[in-house]
């Protein structure tokens, strides 16, 4: 996904790229409260261990931790509440078919601002096995060594 000047990255799930093979990405809006948006602007969001489920033709993001807004009052939001993702119905139906296959899940990869709106990049992911992770680390180390020798 290309970012232009009016897109500002708020959070990224780096662990998802290590634990999963991302096969497809989609952009979705998020239904948030005002204090959640303000907390995200402060960078107080964590996507680790979060995931997306589809229930009754609606998508929901679970375990996404948005810390309470620093200048909030008693009306502040709950940090781990379930948040609705705003997909088109055709996208949801397509995702239902793909996640029905064994081993596939939906993982939030990035949260960013696109103009005044908060957007989430959701990836259709397949879990990696332990040996695949080790092979990837070995390849990266070999490439790093080769780059060092040539420069």
Task: Give structural notes.
The protein has helices at about 15-20, 35-40, 90-100, 130-150, and strands at about 5-10, 20-30, 45, 50-55, 60, 65, 85, 105-115, 115-125. The longest helix is centred in the C-terminal third of the chain and has 21 residues, at about 130-150. It has a seven-stranded antiparallel beta sheet with strand order 1-8-9-2-7-5-4. The protein has about 150 residues and is an alpha+beta fold. It is globular. The mean pLDDT is about 85. It has one domain (about 10-150): Beta Barrel (Small Protein B, Chain: A), CATH 2.40.280.10. A hairpin with a 2-residue loop joins β4 and β5. The chain has four helices and nine strands; from the N terminus they run βαβαβββββαββα.
Short structural description:
The chain has helices at 14-19, 34-41, 89-99, 130-150, and strands at residues 7-12, 20-30, 45-46, 51-55, 58-62, 65-66, 83-86, 104-114, 117-127. The chain is an alpha+beta fold.
What's the total number of strands? 9
> Mean of the pLDDT scores?
87
Order of helices and strands: EHEHEEEEEHEEH
pLDDT < 50 runs, ≥5 residues: none
Share of residues in helices:
25-40%
CATH class identity: Mainly Beta
Strand order of the largest sheet: 1-8-9-2-7-5-4
